[in-house]
Each structure stands twice: as structure tokens, then as C-alpha cells.
Input
Amino acid sequence: MTVGSLLRRAWRQSVGRLLMITGVSGLLGLLIGQFWPMLALSAFSILCWHYWRLNRLLAQLYQRRRLREIDGRGLWDDLEMLLHRRQSEGRARVRRLLGIVRGYRHAASLMPDAVLLLSRDSDRVEWCNRQARELLGLGPIGHERGISDIFEGPQVAAWVASGQTEEPLFDLPCPRDPSIRLSLRLLPYSSTQWLLVVRDVTKLMRLEQLRRDFVANVSHELRTPLTVVHGYLDILDTDDYPELEPMLEEMRKQSARMSQLVEDLLTLSRLEAQEALAQREVVAMTPLLTTLKREAQALSASRHRITVEDAADVDLLGSTRELHSAFSNLVSNAVRYTPTDGSIEVKFEKTPDGGVMLSVIDSGYGIPAQHLPRLTERFYRVSTSRARETGGTGLGLSIVKHVLNLHQAHLEISSEVGKGSRFACVFGPDAVTERARGSDAA
Ligand code: ADP
Output
């Protein structure tokens, strides 16, 4: 039966019942000569009955009791049946949703990583899986705590508040045991919740440390034998055997390349071992820019036009040694990857945010766009043959990136094949200090 016909039937039944009651009581009233009082009595009884049904229904709804399933005999029964149906549908929907939520939670509890559901508005943990309780030492009431209670210090709470879903937080000490290292990733779970996935990366960090130590040790061990070989090659006299000279020349070149490689690897290992600069000194930019120009001229041997522009009129705060190494890597690249008669420009200028930028711009070969994101990886080269020809080790830009990271600065690269490249080291306002007038003369 359709809803319309059900309603019509209920309406007919109710009106029929009303007519029957008033009819019978009217007839009874006529018989006993009390027509109007009998009619009034029946109307009052009908009203009372309606109030009683209304009151019963309200009581059931207030007490959240389950309504009976009745086959409709009138409007009230139909109303109860309709409400009963709504209640049943609502309960079924809640059961289904609960099943889905239980399913998700079960899946989350099977995940090897610790998972926490955080509220976006407050720093409250709404739910967490067993792994989270074990790894973070939360105990059974873990979900009632806030994220700033779990991780000491403002770092994690600020990171969550900023909604950083792109970059994970890496190598954090575990609140339960600082020797356990954690990586944290934030995922947008819903419009009101974040999903925080916490992973134990202790083994990974140990392996990474092993790799670093291995590279540093091997490079260190290679340094002495290479110096000896290099030294003997330099003093070898080939006057009596001129035919050996080309061979010796090649050996000298290769041993110099190996020494440079070892030096670069040692520099990288040293940079990687530092989490932050031990101390920041004033880096006098005027003498540094002069040195860069001299180095570029020496390397270029008058094959390029070299200009240095010092427009910033400020100095940097950081490590002179590391910054010199980074800048001269960029200058040396510009010279090596720019053909004869090209131009190289070093610019030191202010940025709109109050920071500064040192750019090295060349009119060289340029780099195809697909290589740009990977340029700062170790040993990454665009053209291996050209890099070898020019004496590159493939570690220069990696060193630059590490040095800039230590200075909370970053490298911006833009390039066009056949037109040239621009490598810019961008420093924030914190790295800038007023130039001491005496430094110009240094
Ligand atoms: P390399 O020692 O091989 O120069 P780098 O790490 O300094 O290593 O540079 C990585 C690669 O980036 C280089 O092999 C080269 O292909 C490319 N590259 C770097 N600087 C420039 C530049 N100024 N112009 C063109 N290509 C460049």
C-alpha cells in the first residue's frame, strides 16, 4: 500500500469512528431525552482519549522507548507506526555506521604503525590504536590526553596546528624512551580531525648513521694513500722516458680528481653530522665577494666576463668557512658549465622580506627542466661526460644544499637550455646583520 492510500484509510477510519461515537451517543441522548448533554459527554470523552494517546506517545518518545509495531487503525496508530519505522531505520543506520567505524578501527589496530585521531579544533587525542599506546606509553586513558602532553615542547603541537601534511616530522625522540626515534606524518582524516601516523624509525636512523660513518671512515682512510700517490706522481721525473709523460699526466689528473672526491665526501660527512651551526659569526661579505671574484677569474683564465655586484650592503650571520665553500662551488660550476666568451654574474642583494640573496647567474649550457629537482642529490649529474671533462665530482650542489640548510636558507635554481642558469642562495632576515664599516677594507 502506498503512503497516500494508508493515510486516506487512517483518515477514513478516524472520521468513521468519530461519526459512529457521536451518532450512537446522540441516539442514546434522544432516547433518554438528554440529547445535548450526551453529545457534550461524548465530545469530552473523545478529547480525553486524544490527550491520553498524545500523552502516551510523548512519554514513550521522552523515555526513548521503542515504539510498538501496530497495524494502523486510525491516525494515532498510523503516527506511532510511522515513528516506529523511523526509529527502526535510524537504529539500522547507526548499526551500519558502527560496523563501518569498528571495521576502520580494526584495520587501524592491525597497522604496524601507531595511529592517533586528533581533533583539529583542540589538541585533544580522540582515539588511538594499541600500537600508539605501546609506542608512546599512553596507557588505557591515552585518548583523553592532548598532543602537547604526549610530546614535550612546542614543536609537535605547533606542527600539528600548522596542518603540515606535506612534510613529515623526522627523527624525533620518543617520549617514553628518547633512544627510540620517531617519524610523524599528518593526514587530513575529516574536516574536523587529523590522523597522525607515528612510525618507529630507530633502525632506519641507525642504518643511516652507519652509512654516514662508513663514507666518512673510508674517505678518511683514502686520504693518506692518495696524498702519497699524488706526491710521488708530482716528483716523478720523466726526462729519461718522455714516452711515459702522457701516462703520468693522466695519472696526475685522475689522482687529483680522486683527492677532490675524498675531500668533498669528507666535507659532506662533516656537514651531515651537524644538526645546527655550533656558533654564528659575522660573515664579512665584502672580502668574501672579492675572494669569489678572484677564484672565478683564476678558474676562468680570462675565458669569461665576470662581474660581482654587491647591492645588499649588509653582512651575513653564520659560518664563513661553510658559506665560502658553498658560494665558491656555485661560482666554480658557473665557470665550468659556461663556454668561452660567456658571462658570469655574482649578485648579492636584499629580498623584499628583509632577507638577502646571493645569486650566481651564467650564460652557459643551461639545464633541462626535468633535471632541476634532482640536482642537489649526491653524484647527480646532467651530463656525466661534461661533468667529468670539467673535473666535477657530482657532490658540489649537495654540499651547497647542506650548508644552506645549516643556515636555514635555501637554494633556488632556474635554468634554460642554451641560455644559462641562475643559482640563488636565499637567506631569511634572521641571517642578516648590519655591515660593520671596517669590513669593507678587510
Ligand atoms: P659537479 O661536480 O658534477 O659539477 P654538482 O653537484 O656541482 O656536481 O652539479 C651537479 C650537476 O648539475 C652537474 O654535473 C651539472 O650537470 C649541473 N650543473 C651545476 N651547475 C651548473 C651550471 N651552472 N650550468 C649548467 N649545469 C650545471
Remarks:
- The first strand starts at residue 114 and ends at 119.
